[in-house]
TrEMBL record:
It is a multi-pass membrane protein. The chain crosses the membrane at residues 33-56, 95-114, 126-143, 182-205, 238-260, 291-313. Pfam families: BPD_transp_1. PANTHER family: BLR7065 PROTEIN, INTEGRAL MEMBRANE SUGAR TRANSPORT PROTEIN. Keywords: Cell membrane, Membrane, Transmembrane, Transmembrane helix, Transport. This is Sugar ABC transporter permease.
Amino acid sequence: MTAATVDPGAITAPPIRSSAEDFKARMLRRAPLLPALIFTVIVTQLPFLYTLYISVIGWDRDHPEFGHKFVGLKNFRAVFSDHALREAVLVTVELTVLVVLVSLALGLVLALLLDRRFAGRGVVRTLLIAPFLIMPMAAALLWKHAFYNAQFGLINGVINGLRGWFGNHTPTSWSILTDHPLLAVAIPLIWQWTPFMMLILLAGLQSQPGDVLEAARVDGASAWQIFRTITLPHLRQYLELSVLLGSIYIIQAFDAIYTVTRGISNTTNLPFAIFETQTESGDYGVTSAEGVLVVFGTIVVATFALRVVSSLFKEEANS
């Protein structure tokens, strides 16, 4: 058996292409993506740019004779001087924090349970995902009439049944709609967004390296130690993604508030406040200015939530 020899003279260096040829080659590779990029820009960016334009002009639905005049930042000053809108900002923050944190905690618990093998796991997973597949308006109607109704709702029915066992047959006057309206709005949102959090975290759990977990068990680590030192740091990016996407979507929640409370009893968030501004005043300029502020507020809240979660994990890693 003889070893193969290679003639150094037979090896030719690859042709050197100029920067212009490299640029042309890169453009040719990316050209198939151009239609999708143009479509995305048209669908997402042009409406926002048009909203920016309307936010700096005067456009009153009830007075078309005034036309569309440039007013600068007048619409934004009107928005910041609106006391009701400032209260809507607080309600938006409270609702977003409550829904995202509770959904994240419940989603993590359900993901940990579904990460184990048991009979009927596929059926249980499908049933848990079902609330996320229901239309938001239908889910809010379901909770408002089937659960919250003071006369025939499930919640008051259970309370009256328990009161009857203890000899008190007087129907309760308590109602979650009137006593805790913000909680009544948050519950349908939590019910719908918990499966979303669960799916993201379950994907993170199932991507854990099995050999690392097995080595920890062999070394005698308890289940809590494995979760705190291996599983939780591994889930960091998945938790960040859940908080980020959940915050962005919950800030824009409209269906639950419109259906359950119609914005009364201090449950008006920013999207519902914009809806009220448009329907009551018909001022397109102020409405667009509010919409622009909601977009920037969403970016700020999502960035803040992301940094808070990241700092918590950094502290955990340094401890």
